Give the backbone structure.
Amino acid sequence: MAYKDEINESLKRALKEKNALRVSVLRMLLSSLGYKEVEKRKPLTQEEFYGVVKTMMKQHVESIESFKKGQRQDLVEKEENELRILKEFEPAQMSEEEMAQEVDNVIETLEARDQKDMGRVMKVLVEKLASRADGKVLSQMVRNRLSSQRPS
């Protein structure tokens, strides 16, 4: 897989540079990816890879908030540095135009007509775009598209 090769190359560079923090984060990422592959019993797709990265980033953000409340600035800084490294592997976010196009395509493919079809449409969109699009924005777009359609 391309993403694993990229991570392994980055890990090799970090080891040569003796960058302990980067080595630690990349090893955690590889470990999480390995667990996910074992769980799925097959190699991860690009979308699943991005899902793992996004989950790890979310955990770091939550830790940062907790440490800020606990006034542990040293741990906040450590988590922020780790988060910065993970962001290198974050997927590029889709533009609103790209999301709108995907929403329209899925609605047309599923022949969705009204709000009752929203669940089916969202299920397909989330599977397809989960890591590259904001779920709230997608949901609002689907709701707007379905409410503006006239029953035929």
About this structure: The CA atoms of residues 46 and 145 lie 28 Å apart.
